[in-house]
Amino acid sequence: MNRKILIAIATVILVSGCIEIPGMPTSQMGLGGLGLEITSFTAEPSPIFSGASLRVIMEAENRGGTSVNNSDALVYLTSANWGSWAGNTSSFKTFGKEMKAEDVVRGVPATTDRLTWSLTAPSLSPGQTRSDIFIGRIYHEYETSANGNIWVYSEAEAEAARAAGRQIYTPSFTYSKGPVGIQVTVSPTPVILYAGENSFTVYVKISNLASGTIYSPGAVGYSSNDISLTVDEINRVDVDVTAPGLSGFSECEGTDQELIAGRDLTLVCDVTVTSVPDTFQSYQFDVKVSYGYYTERTTTVTVQGR
Predict the structure, then answer these.
(1) pLDDT in tens, 174-212
(2) Residues 189/210, Cβ–Cβ less than 8 Å
(3) Which of 44, 88, 218, 256 has its CA 20 to 30 A from that of 188?
(4) At 213, is the secondary structure helix, strand, or coil?
(5) What predicted TM-score, i.e. pTM, was given to this entire model?
(6) By the 8 A CB rule, do 193 and 273 touch?
């Protein structure tokens, strides 16, 4: 089977806040575009005089659906004039705890944390003024999942259901929240296997729903403060599919899948039913997308010489 990858670069139609690929069956995109978020990023005071103390404060919260271990996250502060600020030896920080996602069932809120950098403003001559832009980033490992059931009917069972006025079940999926979204659709819907048929088509659409940058999982060294990323590591994800009783979905999974230029990626696979049911049967179809992600905020500080 030739690998088929459709990139949504043609005309798109907005449907309920999602992007629809013309001719493709639709379903709800994975919830939200949030993960480990910078909720506040400030520098105090501004303006500031030469030699005075500056505090840069970042507040973060896990607004996604997956918890992040502190060993899988790294916080970074920098500026174009970073070298002129005294006390800049601690640009990297880590969270002091696991950043847990909200637990709606137990009523436990998402984990928040605050990180602070203390710096000393550079020396400027009296009358001089300079504006410095500080950038705060959070690098972390994340995953988004889609879990669902695909109902498969024989032709005879589908006809019997229609004659009896019974509902013919269609595929349905639930999605976890995360900055990368998943949309799983199935064609045809409902899935009815006619005489001699044993396959149907699954589409797995992957989108960057937030404003951050996707990178290959494991590409950042969180314990070694290594945030150097190559262009070949940007916009890459790993996709894993679990579907007992089905085969042929290898085109829908694999490591190092690329969202070219950050655009949506749609993987297409012809799925085969290992044993065609005599009546109807439900098959579990789970998709997990693993990736690294970083988001950033900026703040401006004005330094005045004296």
Answers:
(1) 999 999 999 999 999 999 999 999 999 999 999 999 999
(2) no
(3) 256
(4) strand
(5) 0.85
(6) yes
